[in-house]
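COURSE: Structural Biology Practicum
ASSIGNMENT: Worksheet 4, Part C
STUDENT ID: 0417
INSTRUCTIONS: Below are two proteins. For each, the amino acid sequence is given first, followed by its structure token string. Answer the questions at the end about the second protein only.

PROTEIN I
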Amino acid sequence: MKYKSILLFGAPGSGKGTQGKVIGNILGFMHTSTGDLFRALDKNSEMGKVAAQYSSKGLLVPDDFTVNLWTQSMQKLVDAGKLNPPTDILVMDGIPRSVKQAELLADNIDVLKILSLNVSDMDMMVDRLKKRAIKEGRKDDADEKVIRNRFAVYEKETQPVLGFYPKDKIATVDALMSPIRVLEAILKVLIPIREAVDAQPAKPSCCGGH
């Protein structure tokens, strides 16, 4: 069973996390943030040390590591009854972040739509990230050199992922609008998708009734 998925794309500070959390609170959607998964790792564990080694420098964590962490986390949600793959739609924030990750995930996700939060003023994004760093205590966002490096990494490694998917699956949203206007634009894209999934006939249980 593939996970029905909406992919969120955008440079650091474009609002992926903010919008993803809002959408994830709507019935039938679940927000999954790779950043949150990494931050939830025990920093003294082997996986936590590997993640910290890269993120502290503004670099992407290795693809195999990231995909394995994500798939393990999704399986735990299914096992706990918190995620129902036939009906729930994942809102994926932060993954796939490279073409290799997209290739590794191809057998695991059914990409229904890609939301690309477009940013035309990177200086504004630097200011936004610095303010967020102060508010949320994210030390890795307080250093402008690290921020600029994250932008460079995004342009080099993540933007090409958009080319991995069909153009007709991509919806571009102006991330410089107010958050509520960005949400409005996103919902215009998601509502027909959600309704289409809801209209699909329920699949019978594999084991039948008793």
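PROTEIN II
(use this one for the questions)
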Amino acid sequence: MSANPQQARKAKVFRPVVATSNDLATGAVVFRHGDGTWSIDIGRAEIAETPEDGDRLLARANADQDACLIVEPALIEIIREGGFVRPVSLRELIRATGPTVPLPPEAYAHL
């Protein structure tokens, strides 16, 4: 019996990821930096290059959630384009580039 090509799936290739979340105080979309801080700047985000690094990054992000700094952390795939970092998915690109409605300046004051 031959395998059905429709059922055969290739193993997903790991892409570099960053941790994203929402700031608990303001709701702003934030990214975790290597020094443990969070800000709206995806360009400074800590990048996990392997699945194991991604697991450790998510564990640190979850610890930040437990400390009530952020809510619902997640890892998102990124692409490096020259000196820039951007999310792979359109949804995350929209989240990274700012809200589609204006927020008051004080929403970003401490970020």
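ANSWER KEY EXCERPT:
Q1: Residues 17-99 form one domain.
Q2: The first strand starts at residue 17 and ends at 23.
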